[in-house]
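RECORD TYPE: inverse folding
INPUT: structure tokens
STRUCTURE:
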């Protein structure tokens, strides 16, 4: 379980962990927020006290992350620029038609300004995600705890996470994943499906991941290198 907070203008993701007993672990997520891994009994007062105590250091670390990604900027949507689909670069060009057309190395978008082009591309990404994510989820129907039935799921553009699973078992996937190779979509989908069994990142969770995807650590690292895709919001 995780919870989003804003304390002293510092974005916080609070994760309650059954395996932690006393101390709260502090980490900086490359997406630009602080992750607190806390024992289950931890209350908001304890969290606020910790953030107040370390506020100066946390702001310093967050600023360093922002400096490292500032040069990347927001993805452009002008003709001649590059957009990604399943990890492959596509040159964006305008055409006089009303639909997006995909050719080898090129994505043709209806004529318009940068904002309308952005909306066309993002709408197309949503359409692709509907199909691709559904196919990847169907491929995992054999997982024993699913009993041949997929959980409720959805996708949307998100700024700080690739996927999530609620306590009620609803899975959310980041639409930006269509810009990454299929193997990374498979990793995120399995990750969230495993949370239906273990709603944490315990040894049992990682063992379950390893059983069904032995190379998941390398896929996780590769996904981390795609962090800049989340900047396009």
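DESIGNED SEQUENCE:
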């Amino acid at each position: 379980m995780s919870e989003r907070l804003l304390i002293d203008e510092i974005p916080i993701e609070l994760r309650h962990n059954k395996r932690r007993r006393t101390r709260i672990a502090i980490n900086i997520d490359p997406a630009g927020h602080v992750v607190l891994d806390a024992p289950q009994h931890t209350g908001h007062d304890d969290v606020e006290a910790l953030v107040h105590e370390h506020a100066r250091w946390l702001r310093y670390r967050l600023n360093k992350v922002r400096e490292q990604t500032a040069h990347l900027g927001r993805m452009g949507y002008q003709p001649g620029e590059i957009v990604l689909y399943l990890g492959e670069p596509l040159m964006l060009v305008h055409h006089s038609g009303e639909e997006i057309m995909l050719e080898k190395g090129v994505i043709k978008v209806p004529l318009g300004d940068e904002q309308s082009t952005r909306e066309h591309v993002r709408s197309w990404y949503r359409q692709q995600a509907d199909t691709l994510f559904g196919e990847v989820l169907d491929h995992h129907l054999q997982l024993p705890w699913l009993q041949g039935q997929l959980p409720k799921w959805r996708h949307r553009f998100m700024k700080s996470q690739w996927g999530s699973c609620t306590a009620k078992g609803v899975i959310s996937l980041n639409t930006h994943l269509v810009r990454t190779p299929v193997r990374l979509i498979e990793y995120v989908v399995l990750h969230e499906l495993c949370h239906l069994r273990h709603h944490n990142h315990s040894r049992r969770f990682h063992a379950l991941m390893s059983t069904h995807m032995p190379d998941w650590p390398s896929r996780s690292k590769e996904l981390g290198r795609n962090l800049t895709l989340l900047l396009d919001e």
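NOTES: The mean pLDDT is 87.
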